[in-house]
Design goal:
It is built from three helices and no strands. With about 80 residues, the protein is mostly helical. The chain has a domain of about 50 residues: Eukaryotic RPB6 RNA polymerase subunit, CATH 3.90.940. α2 crosses α3. The longest helix is centred in the N-terminal third of the chain and has 15 residues. The chain starts with 5 loop residues before the first helix and ends in a 26-residue tail after the last helix.
């Protein structure tokens, strides 16, 4: 990482990209829940770890399968179709 602060480094790297921001947030949540870092580091800050993984191209955003039960959409009411 460069000498600049983490927020500045993140802003420079992400550059307002929603895709990169979503990727970073998803990976930080995984790390907080106990996922093992994909890099060899002594770093403890999950944001820094996710950022380093992203910089090295080790993580990517993929569609998540929704494992939650979803209520079926109601049928249209007769005459309202």
């Amino acid at each position: 990482m460069t000498d600049s602060s983490l927020p500045t480094s993140l802003q420079d790297f992400v550059g307002g990209s929603f895709h990169k921001t979503a990727l970073l947030q998803k990976r930080v949540r995984e790390l907080i829940k106990g996922a093992i870092p994909l890099i060899d580091t002594r770093e403890k800050n999950p944001i820094k770890i996710a950022f380093l993984e992203m910089q090295q191209g080790l993580i990517e955003l993929t569609p998540e399968e929704d494992h939650r039960a979803v209520a079926p959409m109601p049928s249209p009411v007769a005459g309202m179709e």
